[in-house]
Amino acid sequence: MTLPGWLQPLADALPHVRPEQISRFLPPETGGRHSAVLVLFGDGPDLLFIERAATLRSHAGQPAFPGGAQDPEDAGAVAAALREAQEEVGLDPASVEVLGTLPDLWLPPSGFVVTPVIAWWREPHAVQVVDEAEVAAVARVPIAELADPANRLRVTHPSGWIGPAFDVRGLLVWGFTAGLTDRLLALGGWELPWDPSVVRELDASTAALALRTASRSTP
Q: Whose C-alpha in 101, 117, 137, 163 is 20 to 30 A from the C-alpha of 40?
């Protein structure tokens, strides 16, 4: 497989990434529902994002990577990520080269153990919302826009949590997806210096959806 030169540093770094380099939320020894997300790099170079439907039980209304829970018939995280992307946005799995996976991460609000699957979109094609019950919008966001310091900030959650965010293409990418994107920019060598003192509170509607997810996931 021949990768574009801009993607090779990330591919080289993948086998050496430790979970604590990505998130402070590490999976419990037992429990949690296994899931996977597809982090798909296109030839823009860009990343494929979705906006999750506001009616979902978990992480409603949030920008995210395509993905979801592993089904019993899935042959692991890679198969689950590709299947979910096909169901959500019509991605052809044959158009994708999987580069590898990152260590499993933990999403406390929803109880998911998430495996990020990193892939190169070798033969990009049109994608769109397929499952409106899961996805509200689809966007390919250039890496240059994600790395642009003018589009970077931190956001605060009503719980007191604070983390990185990206204000791009009319989307506020925050939470797990923004944290993962932040680390990928660093691993790929695309990160530019930005001002972490720029902080914004989540707007009331976004915060309400986030709190709804947390309350539904509490035993």
A: 163
Q: What is the pTM of this model?
A: 0.90
Tally of CA atoms within 13 A in the half-sphere of 77 that contains its CB: 23
Residue 3 located in a structural domain: no
Per DSSP, the three-state class of 191 is coil
Name the token pair of 113. 């153990």
Phi-psi group of 119: left, alpha or beta (phi > 0 → left; psi -120 to 50 → alpha; rest → beta): beta
- For residue 14, give its domain range: 8-217
User: Using one digit for the tens of pLDDT, what is the confidence trace for 30-87?
Assistant: 778 899 999 999 999 999 999 988 655 544 578 999 999 999 999 999 999 999 999 9
Q: How far is CA 146 from CA 18, 19, 150, 151, in A?
A: 23, 22, 9, 7
CATH of the domain at 213: 3.90.79.10
Domain count, the chain: 1
- Whether residue 121 is contained in a domain is answered as yes
Distance of CA 190 to the CA centre of its chain: 17
Q: Has residue 2 been placed in a domain? A: no
139 with 182: CB under 8 angstroms? no
Cβ contacts of 138 within 8 Å, gap of 6 or more: 48, 49, 50, 51, 89, 127, 128, 129
